[in-house]
Specification:
194 residues; 8 strands; alpha+beta; two-stranded antiparallel sheet; 5 helices; globular; 23% helix; Nucleoside Triphosphate Pyrophosphohydrolase; 6-stranded mixed sheet
């Protein structure tokens, strides 16, 4: 399981990474772990006065039969000192297989996820034809314990959803970014849809 696949599992169930759960031992007290950092790009467009966002469904067997509450803003980890905007663009391209549209960005800030990871998200207005979207892949032993490695897409599909529907689809830790997007003055008078 890759870091991003494990990250999505932890984000959904709110389990911090093992290093953050460990208690101290005699003579070796637990050191507070630096939170992992993740950056995402939330592409949005406007159709008939309704704001739609592009989000991704994680690939792999854990997510295969999950839909509502499983989708994610297109994102990935970056290191301390790395530019989060550059990381968000890189991760978008890796997960969609297409370069993100250029345009003014909206900084939607950061939110600590249930896993303890800090997610920073930027929004960019633009339309993107997702017919040829394709994700990079990761390898995972599947079925577990079989000794057989299989390749799975990091994101098995992407889709445009009105903000109201995206709130149902997205992991709960991502909802705040939709609220922040809709509160931005550049979207005044636009609707979330149904």
């Amino acid at each position: 399981m890759t870091g991003d696949d494990a990250e999505r599992q932890r984000d959904e169930v709110g389990v911090p990474p093992a290093a953050e759960r460990r208690g101290g031992e005699p003579g070796n007290p637990a050191q507070p772990a630096m939170p992992k950092l993740s950056a995402g790009l939330l592409l949005y467009r406007v159709r008939d006065g309704v704001v739609e966002v592009l989000i991704g469904h994680p690939g792999g067997p854990f997510w295969a039969r999950k839909d509502d509450g499983a989708w994610s803003i297109l994102k990935g980890e970056y290191t301390d000192g790395e530019d989060p905007w550059a990381a968000a663009q890189r991760e978008f391209e890796e997960e969609v297989g297409l370069a993100p549209p250029t345009g003014p960005r909206i900084d939607l800030g950061s939110v600590k996820q249930p896993s303890g990871k800090v997610l920073t998200v930027f929004a960019v207005r633009g339309d993107l034809d997702i017919a040829s979207a394709h994700s990079n892949t990761f390898e995972l032993e599947w079925p577990k314990g079989s000794g057989r490695m299989q390749a799975f897409p990091e994101v098995d599909r992407v889709g445009w959803f009105p903000v109201a529907q995206a709130k149902t689809k997205l992991l709960k830790g991502h909802h705040a970014f939709l609220d922040r997007l809709m509160a931005n003055s550049t979207l005044a008078g636009l609707r979330q849809g149904e």
